[in-house]
Amino acid sequence: MLPIAIDAMGGDRAPGEIVAAAKAAASLGIPIVLVGSPALRSSSEFGSIGDLPLIECGEVIEMHEDGAQGVRRKKDSSLVRAAEAVRDGKASAMISAGNTGATMASALLRMGRIKGVSRPAIATPLPVPGHAPNILLDAGANAEVQPEWLVQFAQMGSVYARHRFGVAEPKVGLLSIGDRSVRSLARATRCARRPTSCSPSHRASSSSATSRAATCCSRPPTSWSPMVSPATSC
Predict the structure, then answer these.
(1) Considering its fold, how many domains does the chain have in total?
(2) Which residue range forms the structural domain that includes residue 229?
(3) What's the CA gap between 176 and 39, in Å, rounded?
(4) Inter-residue contact 151 to 190 (CB < 8 Å)
(5) C-alpha pair distances (Å), 217 with each of 124, 129, 132, 178, 211
(6) What are phi and psi of 54, to 5 degrees?
(7) Residue 78 Cα distances to 57, 94, 122, 202, angstroms
């Protein structure tokens, strides 16, 4: 099994907390490869990385830096090297607690998009007591969206909910932010009327306002928020 590439230099208390978490995951049998400074091999300040493999890098994209510019400028950063490890077949996935924009940019520019997906999305599990979490996406990767992107987010969220949380038939809804401009409503309606490829016999229903995200739910979305309209089951 390919390891998970972990950006050891990203996060509020990196690299110490990141290394500790990586060692804890490795103790559970999860294959891990750290990506970070060569100093991690011998640093006593952050604790020994032990037998964990390390992909060395010489730069770090800081939290205050512009994500896309940081990726283009710092080609030897931990985030870029982690994305390249996935691209080159040395890791199955990458994880970073650092600069979110740079994480998205490094994945997009180094790993590329899934075929048929126009834009990446950030998926955030929202806890639901007694149920699998609701999956909110996009949760910040895109400031503006197109109707077809929302459909793609719904499809990706459905796959994630099934495979990660065991939801056999995820329900998809459009989540409103309460903006009732005519333009925004038209966009939401166009998205809702667009059939998804996962189930030709179903259509998403329209939201009453701007739809910035698709929500994949473990139970009917109307049971927890009136701002979510029920939609297709993928």
Answers:
(1) 2
(2) 124-233
(3) 47
(4) no
(5) 12, 13, 8, 20, 16
(6) -135, 125
(7) 6, 11, 20, 43
Per-residue pLDDT of 114-136, as tens digits, reads 899 999 999 999 999 999 999 99
Q: Are 54 and 46 in contact (CB under 8 A)?
A: no
Question: Which token pair is 66?
Answer: 């512009």
Q: What CATH number is given to the structural domain containing 59?
A: 3.40.50
Cβ 84 vs Cβ 124: under 8 Å:
no
On the CB side of 77, CA atoms within 13 Å amount to 28
24 lies in the same domain as 55: yes
Task: Output the pTM of the full model.
Answer: 0.75
Q: Are 85 and 173 part of one and the same domain?
A: no
What tens digit of pLDDT does each residue of 190-211 get? 665 665 554 433 333 333 333 4
* Residue 233 CB neighbours (<10 A): 16
pLDDT higher for 4 or 220? 4
The answer, yes or no, to whether residue 164 has pLDDT greater than 80, is: yes
